[in-house]
Amino acid sequence: MATFAPKAAFGAIHKHYSAISRACVEEGGLLLNTPDNTQVIRDLLAQRVVTAYDDELGLRIHGKIRDTVNYFEGHFRFKERHGAVQGLIDDLDNYFGMCKRALNSGQNARTLEAAISRVRDAVLEIGEMLEEIIGSYRRLVSDDFGLAGDIDEKIRQTMRCRDELQRINEIFSQLTVDKLQERYPTQLPQLRRLFFVVFSGYVARGLSDFNDINSKLLDRLDKLNRDKLAQRRGTLLELFARHYHDNPTYVPVLRGPLPPQLCRAAALRLNHIPNLSADESTLEQYAQIAQSLGSSRGKKIKTPPPKLESIEDVRQSKVSLDDDEIALKLDYFFQALLPGQPITQLSASAGYRLLAVNIPYEDWLFLVLVRYYTIKDEVDRCCLLEEVCREVSSVLTGNIFLEDLIFTRRTLETAT
Amino acid sequence: MADRFTRCIELLLQGEVLCEVGQPELYRYLTEEHGESGHTPHKERVAEFLSQLGRTLTQTSDQAGFYCTLSSGAEPEELRQARVWFDEAVTHFEPLIDFLRMEREAKADPRPLSAGDVLKLSDLEGSVADSESLNRQLHQLVGKLKVARQASTSRDELKAVIAYLVREGYLKEVGSSGVVYRATAKWSLFYDLLEFVRSVEGFADESVDPAAAGPVQTELF
Predict the structure, then answer these.
(1) In angstroms, what separates the C-alpha of B123 from chain A's closest C-alpha?
(2) What is the pTM of this model?
(3) What is the ipTM, given to two decimal places?
């Protein structure tokens, strides 16, 4: 076992400084009893740098050592304080509970006064801690972790700082005036003043300061990342410059595949581009056309134009139809009008419905009219045609707007 | 005038790198978090359209620029053309690196020129006029870029270099006085290329003295 001596103690501190500083800064002085720390604990115990704290939890760094480490680390590292803040708020809850119990049980005034005094102390302590935390953050923000030379280390410290700040911020976000009123319901003037004037004042100022500090931390994080990128790019330039200097004829020749982000698509020469925001169906058509152009580009293969099955042009009312099916339905329609059939009257609209014609009604009407004139003589012998016109109030253009065509079988009366 | 969606598609297909400097309006359009009336973000809409054409909307590693790359499953001919572009791009490494180092030395700032940075011709001119070393570097650069071989003054040489960089899309003139320029995200793509070639060629970073690479300023606030 190593003998205790001041020099040996400093040697042990120096040897295990990382573990000691982590324990002081991040664990509040507690050195966790983990397998990694076995040797550390053995050495530090031998030099009385740590004292037994709890068999299960671990050991505590000696107060003097802790203060010294905190003094040095405080220059560029921050202490994680959210646990301590939460602890003080828990204490405040307890003291408030004591006040309530003293009031409810009708204990003497001194007991109540003592409880209120504890609440006052806790509030002031939280205020002081808040001020201290904000002060330490302000120092950190302004001194740029001056002792951490490496950008990565600065980024790491800044991120830890930001995370810790967020945790503290979350704790205080739960203590706004309305939430304080729910948490500490009281009518006692002394307590109301402590909670809703003094304490809520600390919290409001603290939250405002946290927002400001957080914004500065984020700015700094951005700047550090930009610095890191700039440094990386500077390194790249120097690497290549030296390589070109040493190998004047050097040209990078790479055999392997390119990464996806550098597999640039060849530029297309576009003389004109239609409005692509028209609508979804148009976009799909454009995409199909572009794809077909793209796939044929460079192959110089003449492909026949795509066969369009149907083109709708509402201006001219021209349609390409399935001739066989429509012709058959027209045949059925007029066969029904021929002699020997029981139907006495048939309209184009009824035929359209009964025959389930799958073209627009206007087209059907037009085709019936055309067919009628083709076989007019034959139809006229047995039917009378009545054109049902829709009234049109616009200026007379000479156009007739048909609504229906009604064929009525000739009878003896109509024949005359 | 085509809408912003159409303009984005058009320029991306034409091989442009869209950035805040070159096309501020289109860049904003692509980086807005929400589309019209809170619908699909514009970036996703553009990416989706390009994907139907076998293209991918890609961002430079520093997020400064958008450009078009091939989607997976590209035709061999398309991959060949991408390789042609790459081979062409790497042949310009040396003069561009020389320019960046010269510019960095001239402004006495360790940060190399990056997307969004301002470049003042007068500052460069002043530094080149005051430094024999920079003058020599400029003259060599002109030779490598094969521009302004007949130029008689360093001022003409510098103007020719800047004109070349504007023509190639690395710089964009601010106003029309020909005095102030801003770097585009083509530099970001250039740095990405350098990084890729470095990784493939196996150049070791440790061999570069950090001081030579440009000590990053330590005073941040």
Answers:
(1) 21
(2) 0.58
(3) 0.88
